[in-house]
Design goal:
6 helices; mainly alpha; two-stranded antiparallel sheet; 160 residues; 2 strands; 62% helix; 2 domains
Length: 160
């Protein structure tokens, strides 16, 4: 009776490669996630300027990245209390006049323009000027490509 004999060799090399992947894969993912988070932050800051939401720089400066201890989870957002009102706009309401007066002064408008502006806001609200979500959409399109590139570059370490 004829038989077939199969012998697998290189078990040590396979174990070494698996250990390499287990050790490095989280780092590759973390690097890709972090790079995407900074792309979202930078895009959001650029959008603040593009949407003419940059006055004192407070909103721009409040956009940051928070990273989990292992770097696999990140959050990008603003700590500014008025960021949601810029991102989503507001319903009609009568706003306080002092901040509008300061805004008028920063734009070279007379203080007397504050009340008509507040009245218009009380009738129409303020328009949405999204800055964070559009930045997220752009970065999300690049994220999968970025992960693939980090993994590909890392796997090249096995082949060398």
């Amino acid at each position: 009776m004829a038989g077939l004999k199969v012998q697998i060799t290189g078990g040590d090399k396979i174990a070494s490669n698996v250990a390499y992947l287990k050790r490095n894969f989280p780092e590759w993912l973390s690097a890709a996630v972090l790079e995407t988070a900074y792309e979202v932050r930078d895009g959001a800051q650029a959008n603040v300027k593009k949407e003419d939401a940059y006055d004192t720089g407070a909103l721009y400066d409040s956009i940051g990245v928070s990273i989990s201890p292992k770097g696999l989870s990140v959050a990008v957002g603003s700590t500014s209390k008025y960021a949601p009102f810029v991102e989503f706009g507001t319903r009609p309401h009568f706003p306080p006049l002092d901040p509008i007066r300061k805004w008028c002064a920063s734009r070279g408008l007379p203080e007397s323009a504050a009340f008509p502006i507040a009245k218009k806001i009380s009738e129409r609200g303020t328009p949405a000027r999204p800055f964070l979500y559009p930045a997220f959409k752009v970065a999300a399109r690049n994220h999968v490509r970025r992960i693939r590139q980090y993994v590909k570059d890392g796997l090249n370490g096995l082949l060398t």
